Amino acid sequence: MRFLRSFVAPLMLLAAGAAQAASSWGFDDAKLTVSAKKAAAGAKEKDVRQFNDKTALTTPVVLESSDSLKLLLTAKENGNGKRPHQAFLILREPTSGLEAPFPLTVKENGKATVEIKQSDLPVQLAIATSHLKASLILASFGSSEGFKKDIFDVEVKRDPTSAPITYEKPLRYGKQKEIHHIFRGDPKSPPKTVSLVFVLAVLATVPVLFLSWIVLGANLSHLPKALGAAPVAHSVFFGSIVAMEGVFYMYYISWNLFQTLPVIGIVGTAAFLSGTKALGEVQSRRLAGER
Fold it and tell me: Of 168, 22, 140, 21, nearest to 82 (Cα)?
């Protein structure tokens, strides 16, 4: 009994290993052809090779700018033709590790095909100087082991007469260089010449004002009576007008807007309240017939 028991465990391991080895994906009847894009009818392909999953091609396949690479094979699970869930031919640049997958068109019986032109290659692979590694991936649901293996190499040859391909790095978000921003300086006063012109224009209105009073008959004899009737209102009203001009002057030479607006609010309120009283006193004299 001990002798039989000692054989049970190894036999079970061997059976499991055999079942696992048998349950796997592979391919057969692979045919690789390279033909020119504008080949004449009936012309022979430039390169034809046949292989299977047990043997890989030893010499690289040359793919020129006008060539088309076509791979036909039969995907098999446990030796039977079947359609896998995943079937890709992957071209890989060995130095950088960049890959480009090309899906195979597979029928239910496992017949698969894929065609690749040089224009289908990404820029990184099209300008590669080393041979590209072509690997085949076959896998599906279930316990069967998938197939992934390098099956041949591809040598990409560019047309020397065509325009060279340039690679532009894509936009990637990340840490950028430090930005040194220079803010504009504070606004400066206009040139003195311009300022003097406007000052003289304002001062020129003063003689015009007095001349208008003389022509229209301004009565300065009412000034003592007005100040006697409402001295505070007339004084504050006149002072607020002068103060408002002073505020504008300070804004012109040094103040900013946030300093100017509160002062304008205070002076404007004083002018409104005192002006109501002062102009009311003037109206009362007008209504009394005093001109």
Answer: 140
